[in-house]
């Protein structure tokens, strides 16, 4: 590779890519690489859903056993669940299936290049390239990669140059993550994205209960409509809150906890408890965390601590 894809220099060399396996992440990355001229020659797929993704997202790629995918790839993407990665690497090393000089990329957020050591000892170029993005299995996955950040861990500057080049080619933003800090990096992303989903789903459930059966401009509310009134009410509020938090940090906080309004928070806990005790427990835990960060009134913190 001779360029990072954003200069006027020569274009990076085209690589023959193999994907193991045809999950949401692997097929999205494969499709993104094909869009910039690389060739996904082969992909492994077993389940019906994986086969469908391989055929629809990578229609020009052959669907082959893992050993055949590995043997014909200059760039090998290992995109399997974290719990399966070590066993896959060990199996490939035991059979010496990966030719020396192959660029081997795994997409696990929690792992660095240490997990690739059995293959590194056989002469491959190890890379951990993790897209900081959530994947649904739909067409938007590939499009979102063009605006995503990618956490890269490599063994040396050559590895970092390769990883950064690949990410920049598909429109992403690369950044380095130290090997020993990959678990903390992954925990931060999981906390932000996974728990946000839980928070939003809980807020939608409570708002649906509060608005159920009412009308909006004469249109009857459908309680189980996933794009109903509750979602329309929350969307601009949550978007603004997220934008404010990312721009201004703790100073973006508003609402009863920020004001130290013990009575309002106690009322929230009561009505949420009537609706769903587990939802109320989540509200209490987040309120306590928020109150401590915001240095709210001691009465509020003591009330929340007393409910734990």
What does this structure look like?
The protein has 2 domains: 16-177, NAD(P)-binding Rossmann-like Domain (Rossmann fold, 3-Layer(aba) Sandwich); 185-306, N-(1-d-carboxylethyl)-l-norvaline Dehydrogenase, domain 2 (Orthogonal Bundle). It has 308 residues and is α/β, with parallel strands linked by helices. The longest helix has 30 residues, at 182-211. Mean pLDDT is 91; it is low at 1-11. Helix content is 52%, strand content 14%. Strands 3-2-1-4-5-6-7-8 form an 8-stranded mixed beta sheet. A two-stranded antiparallel ribbon has the order 9-10. It has helices at 24-35, 48-57, 66-71, 82-95, 117-120, 140-145, 157-169, 182-211, 229-248, 256-259, 262-275, 277-294, 298-306; strands at 16-20, 39-44, 62-63, 75-78, 103-106, 125-131, 149-154, 173-176, 215-216, 219-220.
Compact overview of the structure:
The chain is of the alpha/beta class. It has helices spanning 24-35, 48-57, 66-71, 82-95, 117-120, 140-145, 157-169, 182-211, 229-248, 256-259, 262-275, 277-294, 298-306, and strands at 16-20, 39-44, 62-63, 75-78, 103-106, 125-131, 149-154, 173-176, 215-216, 219-220.
